[in-house]
Amino acid sequence: MDLETALSFAARRTRGVLSTIRRDGRPQLSNVMFVADGDTFSISVTEARAKTRNLRRDPRAVLYVPGEDFWNFVVLDGTATLTEVASDVNDGAVDQLVDYYRRGAGEHPDWEEYRAMMVAERRLLVRLLATSAYGMLQA
Length: 139
Known about the structure:
By secondary structure, this protein is an alpha+beta fold. It has 4 helices and 7 strands.
C-alpha cells in the first residue's frame, strides 16, 4: 500500500492503536485518539504512561487505524517526537494541547479547567511522523 493512500484513509478517522517497543523488545499497545495533519499524527499522552517511557527510549512506533469493518485498516510505521510536558497553564506545551483539542473535538466548555487539567495530568503530545504504510482496503 502506498503511503498517500494510507494517509488519506487515516485522515478521516480519529481512533487507533499505538504500538511502542518495550525495553525487552516486545510490543506495548495502547488505544489512542489522534489528530491527523498530513503525514503527522498527534496523540495526547501523560508523562507517566508506559508508551511515553518507551518512546523516550526508542522513538520507533506504529499506528494501527481500523476501518468500519474488520477487513479495512492501515498500519503506519514512523518515528515519534515528544513535546515538553505541560507544567504551567500558560506554557507552550499547554497551548499545543489546546490546539490538539480544538482540531480533534472543537471548543471546550471551560478552557481554564482544561489547561489546569493538562498540567495536573502532566500531559504532552506525541507526534508520529508516518514514513511507510501497509494494510488492506476493500471497496
